[in-house]
Amino acid sequence: MTFFLPLLCGATLIGFVSWLLLKRPHIFFAFFFIILTLVWKLTAAIYIDISGPLYAEQIAREIGPSMSSPILLACYLAILLPFLFVLRERRVALLLEELRSSKRHNDIILQIRNPIFSVCVIYLALLFLDLFRIGVIPVLEGLERYEYTAESSGPFHIFLVTYGNIFAFHLGVFHFYPKLHTPRSDNRFLAILLGLFVYCVLTGNRFSTFYSFGSCFLVPYGAVLLCKENQPGVHGTRDSLPRKIGRFFRLLLGSWKPRLILLTLVAFTSFGLYNNLTFVRGYTPEQAREKFVHRSLVQPAEIWWLTYERVIVERRYHPGDAFHFLFVDPIDSDRNTTIQYLMVLATGEELATSHARMSHVYAGGFPEIFFELFDVYFALPVLLVVGLVTAELLYQLLKAFLSGHFWSLFWTYYVLYALLVMFIGGMLNYLTNLIFWCKVTAMIVSIAWERRHRRQSIPTSGSPLVGAP
Predict the structure, then answer these.
(1) How far apart are CA 276 and CA 178, in angstroms?
(2) 3-state secondary structure of 376
(3) Alpha-carbon distance 325 to 317, whole Å?
(4) Cα of 303 vs its chain's centroid, Å
(5) Burial status of residue 33 (CB atoms within 10 A of its CB: 0-12, 13-18, 19 or more)
(6) How far apart (Å, rounded) are the C-alpha atoms in residues 410 and 116?
(7) 364/426 Cα distance (integer angstroms)
(8) List of residues 6+ apart from 100 with CB closer than 8 A
(9) Using 50, 70 and 90 to split pLDDT, how confident is the model at 146?
């Protein structure tokens, strides 16, 4: 049973995610930034549950075996299942019916894409010029990416580090939006993304940057697929499962763009990982393999395992202390205070403070912090509410994209992105940040203004999608 139940948890999540890909691909691609993270962390938890005891280097102790993966699976289902409710077929049908009856009399996204592309080209050129002006190429010098950022980088690099995911999302918006009107996407913005990937290789990035930029770029593709699946006369969700599987592989292997993106990501991430482990850190091939396995299958879930042991098994938790640390007296209030608190619990205050001030933080934070704050009995209901809020924001994002409402799209993603960051690192202290609530206000105002503006236009009939993905 100790071996069977964790494997069953993994099969359950992979089966559910595969079902999303085939039956609700708009959810899969729009939320892929988080879905891959959830699958990866559960895989690491299963590895610890089955293979333990294992020595975790960062926390300097043995962890596992255990039965932590079923609880983690329950948390992830509490997050994902609300998407099926919020984006249920009847609500999607009402959304598309509203879009068919609306008139795009002032399509700002199509109007501004040419000047936006010019700005993107200039920014990409400035990135490379600044890199060569500084004269420090991390991939050639054997520097870690965070060392280059802290010690040598210029303002254009700092902007990319700070806003790169949001920038990649908007590249995806301008790339995929023409697909709603014509059979073609705007490949110029895909070229900008690939240029960013080349820059990231030169500046010592490994996996996380390519994955996050690529998945943020794909978010608008979820809206295109939503239209495709519901387009009159096109077999969408009514297709049989074998036909859906066949169509997916034809989409993946039959077009040059998916193959180019996939091969680029595999090549760049493989090179980045190999370069970091062998050239930057100086490991032998055998050591590099061991470090790769440890970083892939132990570190993503070691903090979760400690929370499972402390809160669920031993019933030791202090919600008052957790709340005070997170929102009143953290180590560094300008950064994610959740992982700081969990690192204090894992390694002690002195070592955690040293790591935090060097910007070296451990993986994890979600859903650990919800158990530290709400205990096992209330953590799952709270996560269900969080899932509902996230799904509703994603619905509003897809609606803004399909309506061509640029400002609603801009501010809704800005608010949604805070939740996406929370799903990775458990960050909650953004809730006390006045700037975040200004973004929420801007989102509400822009949605209300653009919808009112649309209602005043003359409705015309027509399908929102002309081309096909």
Answers:
(1) 39
(2) helix
(3) 13
(4) 20
(5) buried
(6) 14
(7) 7
(8) 461, 462, 463, 464
(9) confident
DSSP 8-state assignment for residue 459: P
CA distance 20 to 34: 13
Mean pLDDT for the stretch of residues 121-129: 96
Q: What values do phi and psi take at 23, rounded to 5?
A: -105, -30
108 pLDDT exceeds 70?
yes
Q: Among 56-65, 86-95, 188-197, 429-438, where is mean pLDDT lowest? A: 86-95
Q: Which of 415, 420, 462 is nearest to 438 (CA)?
A: 415
Residues above pLDDT 90, as percent of the chain: 50
CA distance linking residue 207 with residue 205, whole number of Å: 7
Q: Is 102 helix (H, G, I), strand (E, B) or coil?
A: coil
Name 40's Cβ contacts closer than 8 Å, sequence gap at least 6: 296, 300
Q: How confident is the model at residue 411 (pLDDT cuts 50, 70, 90)?
A: very high
Amino acid at 392: E
Structure pTM? 0.87
Which parts of 135-255 fold into alpha helices (H)?
Answer: 138-141, 145-151, 155-176, 187-202, 208-230, 241-253
The residues, any chain, with a CB within 8 Å of residue 287's CB and separated by 6 or more, are 277
**3-class DSSP state of 54:** strand
pLDDT beyond 90 at 457: no
Cα separation, 225 vs 401, in Å, equals 12
Mapped onto helix, strand or coil, the DSSP state of residue 185 is coil
42 neighbors 72 (Cβ within 8 angstroms): yes
Model confidence band, residue 298 (pLDDT cutoffs 50, 70, 90)? very high
Report the pLDDT averaged over residues 138-146.
79
Q: Are 371 and 312 in contact (CB under 8 A)?
A: yes
pLDDT score of 124 more than 90: yes
Which helix (DSSP H) or strand (DSSP E) does residue 362 occupy?
A: none
Helices then strands, each counted (H, E), the chain: 21, 2
Contact 395, 27 (CB under 8 A): no
User: 466 in helix, strand or coil?
Assistant: coil
* Paired tokens of 292: 């790769």
Q: Are strands 61-63 and 54-56 parallel, antiparallel or unpaired?
A: antiparallel
Q: Is the pLDDT of residue 466 over 50?
A: no
